[in-house]
Specification:
heterodimer; A: about 180 residues; B: about 475 residues; mainly alpha
């Protein structure tokens, strides 16, 4: 990375059609870029493959949450009803996996949902209320009907002029340098 | 199959000439509306100056909600004796209203989760509002058991929090299962609703012109940037939450039905309760979705996004679940007769012909007969009629819970302990007010949050397909 890139976040360009940004994304992927992203108003079907993204890691936290929830439910019902204050109710055992099963089931789902919800935030690095892209006037249209490709300066392939030319060759318009 | 003669596997030549019939799919969005139109339409609802109808309705809703406030204040300051509960009916309107409101919530989760897993694209138009309905309905539902405990300031004893008495909740009780089911349901529905809303909140933020709107929607949008690396995690999380909500929603009304089924009261102690309750919940919930969406569609001119196809589908689900509920009523009678149990037989004859027969026949006519009108296309296309039928379904489903709860308790085993239950004015005030409470919350949602999931609606338009051109 050369010195004048230090204050540059990257280069952005916009597209009007999902098909155009889809083809462009495939070309960026094939050119070997790693630090880049496609911003779209809605998730485009097949874009993960077009960008060469791996499968999302969110399910790992879902599984972790689910297992934690089940174990928490077991420990909670066992500790309260069988260990700390054992009470004979209806001739049922102090603890078994059967009678508190609704509780274990709900705890599993609750914790798995928390794992999923926070997993989405963790892997997306959110919340982050400031980002260089928010300074671009055309970025406001990305949540409406515009599609944007951003090549980031942290990519080893990045060079301001070459990257601009590359985006131009992909058919992008409104090519802009994004300042940090 | 393995021994089939060879000539059977030979393909007749005619098959190569046969083409599958091209059946056009009903368009989800009419008039070829584009992405920008969708953004303008949905954000416009939030951005326009507060309309007069909203102000008037909001005031009326607040006034109605005050009835719940008055009812509960009187209850707390005087005691649960002010409700019509006395032996033998210790569960009256409170549990009826609780099950009624929880049931309504179920359609929201069905639309957001189960229809998502089944790839029903039409769900996107009604998804967000239905989820909001779920959350607000569960809030209304929660009020009743909370205040039914009597000393509401000890409501936290329902949860396993250490207290000065050194005792814990008792997990062998279905009522305690219910605490976990309903609180999990509320939490997961709220997470799912909020997470699905983040991209749309970002869209409103990006259009915001005023300081407070930028701050409010900016904070809620969490800095969402619509990047595909974000969408990838978002979509995975969305799918997983849908997958988690599906068993959740089925379990919640199952556990609500356990409140009844685990006891040994005639008419309650039946294995049919879980599926029967879930079908009824979805039935009443869809009726409520239509009750809310038909006026909103007319007010905000959403005819292109919520079109006849959506309304047809919802009517058909009401028809299907209503018929299932009717089938469950018949099965209950058959099993009661077949069981040879005198108390069980009596419980059902008593429902239909006893002192609460009036309630039973209101229930049957509203739940079983009325939705059968949805077989007719003419009826489904007459939206005023659809709306009225949905009101009947709501009334019928409230009466279903009333019939189940009250008839079984009022006339159980010993005739010497039979009684007749009537609600008091406090019961009526409290329940009536919850409609206002629900409407206040729903109106705030309509005014300040994206009513339709913009990103999801855009995704199901034909121009969103990157391979279309």
């Amino acid at each position: 990375m050369n010195e004048r890139n230090e204050r540059i976040h990257g280069v952005a360009c916009t597209f009007r059609q999902p098909a155009a940004v889809f083809r462009a994304a495939e070309q960026v992927r094939d050119a070997g870029w790693t630090k880049w992203d496609v911003h779209t108003p809605f998730p485009i079907h097949g874009m993960d493959q077009a960008m060469g993204l791996p499968r999302s890691p969110v399910p790992r936290l879902t599984l972790l949450g689910g297992v934690t929830g089940f174990v928490t439910g077991c420990l909670l019902t066992w500790y309260t009803n069988a260990f700390d204050y054992p009470l004979v109710v209806g001739g049922k055992p102090f603890w078994s996996v059967i009678f508190p099963f609704p509780v274990l089931y709900e705890c599993t789902i609750l914790f798995a949902a928390f794992g999923t919800f926070f997993g989405q935030f963790i892997f997306n690095r959110l919340p982050r209320h400031h980002h260089p892209l928010f300074d671009l006037p055309q970025f406001a249209r990305v949540s409406d009907d515009t599609f944007m490709i951003v090549l980031e300066a942290s990519d080893p392939r990045f060079h301001v002029d070459e990257s601009r030319n590359f985006l131009q060759s992909l058919g992008g318009s409104e090519i802009t340098i994004v300042r940090d | 199959m393995a021994h089939a003669p060879d000539h059977a596997s030979e393909r007749p030549a005619i098959l190569d000439k046969v083409r599958p019939a091209e059946l056009p799919r009903s368009p989800l969005i009419l008039n070829h509306r584009g992405f920008h139109w969708i953004t303008d339409k949905v954000c416009g609802i939030v951005e326009e100056p507060t309309p007069l109808w909203w102000k008037v309705t909001f005031c009326v809703a607040l006034f109605i909600a005050s009835f719940t406030f008055i009812g509960l204040t009187y209850l707390v300051s005087t005691g649960t004796g002010t409700w019509g509960l006395r032996s033998p009916v210790g569960w009256g309107w409170a549990i009826v209203n609780f099950v009624f409101w929880v049931g309504i919530g179920h359609a929201g989760t069905l639309i957001s989760a189960i229809l998502c897993l089944l790839r029903q694209k039409w769900r996107t138009s009604i998804n967000r509002a239905a989820e909001a309905m779920t959350i607000f309905a569960v809030m209304c539902a929660g009020l009743f058991p909370l205040f039914h405990v009597g000393r509401v300031w000890f409501g936290w004893w329902l949860f396993p929090i250490p207290n000065q008495n050194g005792i814990w909740p008792q997990f062998r009780s279905p009522l305690e299962w219910d605490v976990f089911a309903v609180s999990t349901y509320f939490t997961v529905s709220a997470l799912f609703w909020y997470m699905g809303m983040i991209p749309d909140l970002g869209a409103i933020r990006d259009r915001a012109t005023t300081w407070w709107r930028k701050t409010f929607y900016g904070l809620l949008a969490m800095g969402w940037r619509n990047g595909n690396r974000q969408w990838s995690n978002f979509e995975m999380a969305y799918l997983l939450l849908a997958g988690l909500s599906t068993p959740l929603v089925l379990s919640v009304h199952t556990i609500v039905s356990f409140d009844f089924a685990v006891s040994n009261v005639p008419g309650w102690h039946t294995t049919i309760f879980p599926p029967y309750f879930v079908a009824g919940a979805i039935f009443s919930g869809f009726a409520m979705v239509l009750t809310l969406m038909l006026p909103l569609r007319a007010i905000y001119r959403l005819h292109d996004v919520i079109n006849q196809y959506h309304i047809d589908n919802m009517c058909k689900i009401i028809l299907a679940t209503g018929t299932m509920v009717g089938y469950a009523y018949a099965t209950e009678f058959f099993i009661a007769a077949y069981s040879g149990n005198a108390f069980e037989k009596f419980a059902f004859v008593n429902r239909a012909f006893g002192q609460y027969a009036w309630a039973y026949w209101i229930m049957v006519s509203c739940n079983v007969i009325t939705p059968q009108l949805f077989w007719f296309k003419k009826v489904r296309e007459n939206h005023a009629l659809v709306w009225i039928i949905c009101l009947f379904v709501n009334v019928g489903m409230w009466f279903e819970r009333f019939v189940i709860t009250v008839t079984s308790l009022a006339n159980d085993y010993l005739p010497s302990s039979w009684g007749y239950y009537s609600p008091t004015i406090v019961d009526i005030f409290t329940f009536f007010g919850t409609f206002g409470f629900f409407s206040v919350l729903f109106l705030l949602f309509v005014r300040f949050l994206p009513l339709l999931p913009m990103a999801e609606v855009k995704m199901v338009t034909p121009q969103a397909d990157p391979h279309a051109h």
